Each structure stands twice: as structure tokens, then as C-alpha cells.
Amino acid sequence: MRKVKKLLVILFIVSLYPIIHFTALHFYLNADDEIYEHIPQESDIVIEINCRNFVQEIMYQKIFNEDYFQEKLFPPDEDELGKRPINLDIGINVFSKIIILREQWAEEDVWLAIFEYTNKTALQKFIEEEVGEASIAYGDTYAVAQINRSTTESSLDEHLQKIADGDVKPFSDRIDLKTYFDPNKEINVYLLHDAGTSHAKLIDGHLHYDFLHDRISVSGEFTPVSDFAGTPAIAYEMNDDVAMSIRSSISLFNSLYWFGKDRIDDIPEFRQLAFDYDGVNIMLCDKNLDYPFPFKTFPDMDVHFDFDDPQPWNDFLQAMVDDGEVKLDTTTKMLSTKSGTFFKYNISDSEFEFMRDQTSFKAASEETDVFFDFRLNVDPLLANTKLAIDENDPPSKAEQTIGLGFGNGFIADLRKMANVESMWYTMRLNNEERMLAEGEILMKEKEGSAMIESLSFGSLASILLQDL
Question: Domain boundaries in the chain?
Fold first, then answer.
């Protein structure tokens, strides 16, 4: 009789779930778009996280896949990586949207987060325990947190308060995000190009991240510049024998300023980029050497640029030498960075390349409409990350023991966290007006949930970083 009752309870829950799902989706979890009015007009990257979609999937996994749910998100409290319960009571409205944005403020790239809060005391406690000092402003409904550091903290604090109060010119005066953002996707991204960027190929674009069963699907569109016609597609074949392979015929980083103008504005224009990476040898060395860290790195990496004008590339390389960023040995053709990374290099009137030994990129056998291609296999990448002692400049015996122990332990922790199997991403020209983007992040766990796997990875990563 007990088994029959248990079966009836299970059947009742199964039948009840569609009702719960419909009610939650349409009457309780449906976040409004008011938060868009708090996004500053000068933002150029806007990331939207639809928390209600995460809650919906978490609720499903909790009901129908409880053992897996508990194992991934609430493991036993033991002295091992990740064996600590996740605290969800942090004072944030988990049914709302979270906005992460980048804004140009006082000639700096400032990253901010906007979110609806429900309990200021709980939120302040969470920030104090997990983050420490943080710049955060509270409005009546929304809080704004500064993610990166700024040299203009005092004036930025006032700016954060205006954003929280909704007293800034909104981004919606420039772009209607409701036109581009899909509320059914867990994450939406909008990227706006700086029109003053030289040799850029894209104006703006939007991406959507859809968390599915065992993968995260990526889709989106970009707008090419008006004179994009004549830009060649990628000219080199992808390399399936390495952990990571990239081919590109568009200066994607310069187009969208992913990491800030200061770091990428001077990369010269290129016609083709071919990049292969298959791990790295990390050599522990004497701490008294003039490196920021007591190790040298020898990446198994080959990089090749084709270009039409050699002068910008010669100037670029010479500027790095003058600034002390790299050293060139023209006799042995060795390039070394100030952080202790070593490559062979070659530069001519039409190409620049640096490599571990020699490059062997193959020309594409047929024409394609792909302008950017990316492939990554995670396990080979970690397997080919190796730690050893530098024979020429070894550290002391004690430092060798400590360094090898810590380094190998860290790599082992990364392998525990690696629940992603592979990734791929391409951008192809649909017509002269639209560049289509698509890709996938494939999980190792085929019977689980990409969302639960991602949350588990985030928890493990935060714990690992706290222990460093």
C-alpha cells in the first residue's frame, strides 16, 4: 500500500507541474522591462540575465531530478573543493532580470551590475562576506554595483546613485532592447560598436544564450559596416588536432572593444588570422629573475597574420619593444615577453607569425561564407597544461616542492571543475546586411541540465578563487 501511495504522489506531482509552470510563467515570474530605463545611454555592452528562466529550470530539476540536483548544487559540507552548500538567500529578487553593462565614464571602461533587491540587510551581509569592499548604490527598487575598479571613485559613486534612482538618460533613447532581447532565452547580449574605431568590420550585434538539456545554444546577428563588400572569408582550414583553433578574417576585437580601448586599439589591421593552441608548459624558475611570477611559460601555440601593409605591423612590434613589453633576438628569431613567455617569430612584408616551433596552416580547399570560426576541446587543453622545473634557472628545493604541490593541485581542481566538453562558434555572412552567429557549449553530463552544470561550475570557481 505504501508503494501505491508513493506512486500516486509522484503521478500527482507530474500532473501538477504544467499548472505550476503556467502559473509561475504568466502570473508570478514574468519580470517587467522597467530595469531597461536604468541602463545609462553611453553603455556599449549590455548583458541581460533572465532569472525567471533559471528559476523555472531549477524548479523542474528539483522536482524531477532531485538526486542530480542535490549532488550538483548542495553537496555535503566537507573539506573538498566545492563541498559547501550554496547560499541563495542574498537579498536579490530571483524572479527579476539582472543587467551587466559596460559604460564609458570619465574616459574609462566601467563595468556595472543593475538588479532588483528585496532585502538590503541580507544583500549587504552577502557582499561583506563574499566580496568585501564594494561600491554599491541603492534606489527604491534597484541596486547598482561597480564590478571593476576606477580611478574616479568619488564621482562614480554619485553616478551610481543616479543610475539606481533612474536619473540618467536611458539606453532606450538610443536602442530599444525589447526589439533584440528574447525573454525566453536565459541570457541576452547587445554590443554597440564605437564608430571611431579604425578598420572595424561590425557596427552592432546581439547574441542569445539558450540553456538546453546538455548544451548551451548560442545564436545572434551582427550588422557589417557599409563598405564590408570585398572583405574576404577565412582562408585557412581549421585544425581538429589541437585543443583550440581559431580562424578569422575580421578584426573582431577591434570591432567591439571587448576588453577596453587601452588594450586593443593599436592592433594593426589584418586580412587573415590563424590561431592554434594545444596547451602550455609552465616551468618553475628562480624567483629572483625579472618576471612578475616565478615561472616561465612555453605555450604550444601557433599564430599567423596575413596583411597588406607591413608598416603598421613593424611599428606595432617596435612599440612593444620600446615599451619593454617584449624582447626580440633577431639572431635566434626568439620573442620573449616581460612575463616570461617565449616564442619563435617571423615577420615579412605580408605576414607576421609567432610559434612554438614552426607553423603549418593549411589553405582552405574551397570557398566559404564563414568570417570567424572557433573550436575548443576542454579535456585536451587541461591535459596539455603541464608543470615542471626550469633546468636553466631552477628555484630552491623548498620552492620546487611548494610550487609543484600548489600548481599540480590547482590543475587537478580545474579538472574537477571542467564539466564542459567542447565549444564552437561561427560567424557567417547571410547577405551584405547581416552576419549570422551561431554556436554551442556542450556539457559532459548528457543526462543532466546545462543550467545546473553552469551553476555548479560557478560555485566551484568562486570557492577555488577564494582559496587562492
Answer: 1-30, 32-173, 217-433
